[in-house]
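Lecture 7 notes: from sequence to structure.

We start with a single chain of 504 residues. Read the sequence below before looking at the structure.
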Amino acid sequence: MVSLAHSVAFRGVEACLVEVQCSLAPGLPGFSIVGLPDKAVSEAKERVRAALACMAIAFPSKKVTINLSPADLPKEGSHFDLPIAVSLLAALDIIPRDITQSVVALGELSLDGTIVPVTGALPAAMTAAAEGYGLLCPEPCGKEAAWVSDARVIAAKTLGDVVRHFSGQVPISPAQPGEVPASPLTRDLSEVKGQERAKRALEIAAAGRHHLIFVGTPGSGKSMLAQRLPGILPPMTAMEALETSMIHSIAGELDEGGISRDRPFRDPHHTSSMAAIIGGGRMAKPGEVSLAHNGVLFMDEFPEYQRNVLETLRQPVETGEVMVSRANAHVRYPCRFMLVAAANPCKCGYLSDPERACARVPHCGADYLGRISGPLMDRFDLRVDVPPVTYTDLDLPANGEKSATIAARVAAARAVQQQRFDGWSDMRTNADAEGEALEEIATPDAEGRDLLLRAAERFNLSARGYHRVMRVARTIADLDQSERVQRPHVAEAISFRLASATDA
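Now the structure, written as tokens:
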């Protein structure tokens, strides 16, 4: 007779249900696993055998066959240890067979029977809830998985605890959802002296999730400004936190017990590879663009990134999702992030300083920023020149606005957008608006429309650039708590579109 348990195989953020079948048959003693397992799954038989020995359970002197169905779906990862052990224990009549059939299990086994944490508990809980099953997982993963309220999550420390729970000796209480405390803000925008225009651009970008690029000499404060962006962003909603945490769960980055409401802030090094930024590798893992979903992707020294990496950013920036294609996998990941880039105006960095610039001015600036292609630069909503700060400015006391004050205005503007896009599944902020929705919410008044048309003609704006100016103007109007987009809003939006340094 065959005993059953369930587990999952991951395809991106989707967890596909896998039936774990165990058969005990007469014949030469052996232990085989079939169903397209990888090396980690094949090694599970040794870990399961050792864990049962530590529990003083004799391994059956029969032919043991484990089938992972569907057999044509690749099975990767050590999380199949626990479901294999559960199905084998059910076949030995140590735990009831009817109970194991209604549970999705995942977890790696130590040789002493301890259940080791694994990645993907949150997507697994989503699948278990959709199929009407409970979830059995390692204890550290319980707080994460319990966010799916429709799934009854049992988080166990050892395989012995699992046996005692299913046999009714010592039931385990269902896990409760956990939330990571908000990170204390140690960096405040008030610490940045000068750079009022750059601070204003940060506020607009945070309010509407607009893409932003800073261009300035070394030491002008580009990185300092970007690192203070998390302090003015509103916390994620429950739905956003769940979406982001599913990606982080697959990547193995939920290691604090529970999920966080802080928006992700990712800052990869400019030597990062295509797979690191976009996603990929042997198992088509999510890259930095997906790990920054609902948050910020900060790319310092932007022109120094590999050209193919920069060009691959075009589609994720525009569509909010990325397809990672490999020979054995085609995985789609969400990546609705805010791109913040920083760049020097030229290779030496001092294009605007006649005393320090190199002899190739102005050609060095055109060559250096020319590494950023026109179509990619066109996707930045806000372009800001960041001038160097003088010694006299640094000597002055900090008198700028606190991050908390700016964050309150950003939160108010986000609240307006949340109400505006209520009922739209693919629009949450002004940066997402397009088509008829954009025309309806962002068409300026007569004076503003006249200014926008003249600017589009004078500066030869592309259709994408024209619409991005409209989106930024709508966000500026939201910050002013204005129902209509007016001429001053359009004028400020156009000024951020036409930064001289980026056209060098």
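The first helix runs from residue 39 to 42. Keep this in mind for problem set 3.
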